[in-house]
Amino acid sequence: MRRKTIAISLVLSLVIMACTKGTSMENEDGHNFVVVHNEQGANLAYAPSSGVKIIIDESFNFKDLNRNGVLDKYEDWRLSAEDRAKDLASKMSVEEIAGLMLYSAHQSIPASEKGFFAGTYGGKHFSQSGAAAYSLSDAQKVFLKDDNLRHVLITSVESPAIAAKWNNEMQAFVEGIGLGIPSNTSSDPRHVATVTSEFNAGAGGQISLWPDGLAMAATFDPSIVKNFGEIAAQEYRALGITTALSPQIDLGSEPRWYRISMTFGEDPLLTTDMGRAYIDGFQTSYGDDEIKDGWGFKSVNAMVKHWPSGGAEEGGRDGHWAYGKFAVFPGKNFDTHLKPFTEGAFKLEGKTGMASAVMPYYTISYNQDPSGQELANGFSKYIITDLLREKYKYEGVVCTDWMITHNEGATPNTFRGKPWGVEGMSVDERHYVALMAGLDQFGGNIEIKPILAAYEMGKNIHGEDFMRKRFEQSAVRLLKNIFRLGLFENPYLDPAETVKIVGNPEFMKAGYEAQVKSVVMLKNKENVLPLAKQKTVYVPKMYFPSVKDWWGTPSAPRFDYPIDTKMIEKYYKLTENPSEADFAIVFVASPYAENGGYDIRDRQAGGNGYVPISLQYSTYTATDARAQSIAAGDPVIDPSITNRSYKDKTSTPSNTMDLKSILDTKDMMAGKPVIVAIDASKPMIFHEFEKEVDAIILRFGVSGQAALDIISGASEPSGLLPVQMPANMRTVEKQLEDVPHDMDCHKDSEGNVYDFAFGLNWKGKIQDARTEKYQIKNQ
After folding, report:
1. What is the arrangement of strands in the sheet containing 573-575, beginning at the earlier edge strand?
2. pLDDT surpassing 50 at residue 778
3. Are 745 and 754 in contact (CB under 8 A)?
4. Residue 6 has what pLDDT?
5. C-alpha angle with apex 465: 459 to 467, nearest 5 degrees?
6. Distance between CA 96 and CA 89 in Å, rounded?
7. Most exposed of 259, 320, 325, 468 (fewest Cβ within 10 Å)?
8. Residue 392 and residue 339: Cα distance in Å, rounded?
9. Are strands 60-64 and 53-57 parallel, antiparallel or unpaired?
10. 555 pLDDT exceeds 80?
11. What separation in angstroms does the CA of 187 have from each of 103, 396, 488?
């Protein structure tokens, strides 16, 4: 139970407080906190500025967090997390519990000066404020103090050291408020490698970079995922992050869904195994770091998402927008989508037992509630209480996805609130419905007033005793996830130690090796690969069209190399003249469109606004689409639309020119080898170009360097397809959104079928223990 003493490189001074020897640590920022050691017990740390003192009981030291001079149960680290949480919940006011139910919007450190992550310091932008990068913003001080918020979601940080210092500032601030409850800081996945990321053996980085989602799934190796979880947890804790808003284990059975890239693919067994390994890696502490039942000082809560799966979106449209609010189950396959949760996330191999938190998706799981109600998962008592809590015995925290209680935008494609199914209700009423459905926490809500209003509604209907018990029930769940990680004992960090841990060379190397293992070789005609280093290569520049981000802000179009030329030149001589080249590599992205399946111009022209999502490069007309959509309806912004069909409509992907680049390069190379390196975010159509090229390398968002290692022979390919690659768009339209493995797959010129679990190495088609376990038996 004793926490390992961290070696401190700072100048230490000895202080005596409450007859207890403690080590006072003053960081570079001047912030002071005291570490108190317990023999055979938990080490403590507190900020003298918070007013907290030390209480001694039976020769052990304890923090007097509420400063009442008495050792309360919740302050006694010898007791269980359950007992401590119940005691603390009973002491909390309704306002304090309501604050615990809040979850901040995304916070960058320091705050940006404009856009979604903007903030001020003393009323001024950061650059004009004179504030340190680790200072608390004006908004952070308000929601931490006035709204009692204790769950903060951070995004970008200036550096690991700044993150550690901000953590110390923030924890000292909340330690001095009320009952001294520490913050549970969280993050969306932040280890994701990008096309431009580069690995340099021996060099550290801001954080280790790993394959994510489909890329991790392409390794078909849960042990890699568990190793990632263990390393990522160490880096998270060194940054002050104690909850991971991951993994995403939605079953990726709908190939057009843009969030399929963040899943472990379409196979129930593979997704279950990968999700279980991920959570075990994040949540489990070992040895001296363990407090109890696998939880401890190296543990990170895993908030698994999205219950009960958002992977069956009708037409591939996404629930972040009103046009994608429905998940449909025409194959009556709802129960299969639950398996990654019920057989994986809730049945861990490690001692923590189950994921500590769950996030429902935005979508309405259409026609699944026996009562006939069509409410989004976060508002559905059937989805949360009847299924998750009662049938599957889930005991952890349930937190809404972000902004589900906010008002929706003026049009279906506006990125605003996502109150699907309760669009006509007030914000206060939506909070009440969610609480009665069984939710514990509201993602992206930083204001306490709507929760207090919901409490008053419940008190008027059910009585105050009922609502007080309901609030304490959620408080206990939320507090347990803080107690089990040792944050009440020591939430502080040594920035120097943070710098040593985060992105260290060992972690960077492990992440890069996993990236390479995720790369899939689909085609290798006449064993053209590998191609020896120092040959001369032609890499065409690509057109990158203007696309809009989630908030509608367009990017600038450009014509440029798709990969850093300096990286290419580490492997090959680069020429702009195809006639001088020994071979060509065409770096492309899988087809993508910015409209997401809805085009406001179609609506303005008298249509319903819905258009096809295409997986091919060339213009596509949806002649095989449904004439009548399975689900439709928005009672507030578009009540007249009762059919979301896009049959016979046409769409062209934003990167349609990628196809022309491939075919033009084929012509210019005049018979010399052409290699296509695809950065794929979802399944795609290959028949437009496959027979024209000699080799195809597929990667799911990992670095271009990993692809070059395969092409050059520095590494042998070992990745396998975690999703099917469809033969054409007709099979995409005919497949059912909720059914995996139900498409006709592309067959290439070499006779290989691009089905789930297919991949090549230098010897040919891969057949190993992974394919034996996961490959569909009828292939």
Report:
1. 573-575, 536-538, 583-589, 674-679, 695-699, 520-524, 760-761, 764-765
2. no
3. yes
4. 31
5. 50
6. 9
7. 468
8. 11
9. antiparallel
10. yes
11. 12, 18, 20
- The burial class, CB within 10 Å (0-12 / 13-18 / 19+), for 558 is exposed
Are 40 and 50 a contacting pair, CB within 8 Å? no
Q: 66 φ, ψ to 5°?
A: -95, 5
Q: Could you tell me where the DSSP H helices lie in 632-735?
A: 657-669, 704-712, 729-734
Quick check: helix, strand or coil at residue 242?
coil
Tens digits of per-residue pLDDT, 416-469? 999 999 999 999 999 999 999 999 999 999 899 999 999 999 999 999 999 999
Q: What is the pLDDT of residues 73-99, one digit of tens each?
A: 999 999 999 999 999 999 999 999 999
Q: Give yes or no for a cis peptide into 247 (omega within 30° of 0).
A: yes
- Reduce the DSSP state of residue 520 to 3 states and report it: strand
Residue 3: band (very low, low, confident or very high) from pLDDT cuts 50, 70, 90: very low
| Helix (DSSP H) and strand (DSSP E) numbers for the chain | 21, 31
Identity of the residue numbered 344: G
> How many Å is the Cα radius of gyration of the chain?
27
DSSP string, 408-425: P-SSTT--S---TT-TTS
In our burial notation (b when 16+ CB lie closer than 10 A, e otherwise), range 255-280 reads bbbbbbbbbbbbbbebbbbbbbbbbb
Of all residues in the chain, the percent with pLDDT exceeding 70 is: 94
Identity (one letter) of the amino acid at 324? G
Burial of 772: CB neighbours in 10 Å, binned 0-12, 13-18, 19+: exposed
Tokens 């689409």 found at: 625
pLDDT tens-digit profile of 380-392?
Answer: 999 999 999 999 9
Q: What is the pTM of this model?
A: 0.94
With a CB cutoff of 8 Å and minimum separation 6, the contacts of 27 are: 10, 165, 168, 494, 495
- 3-class SS of residue 557: coil
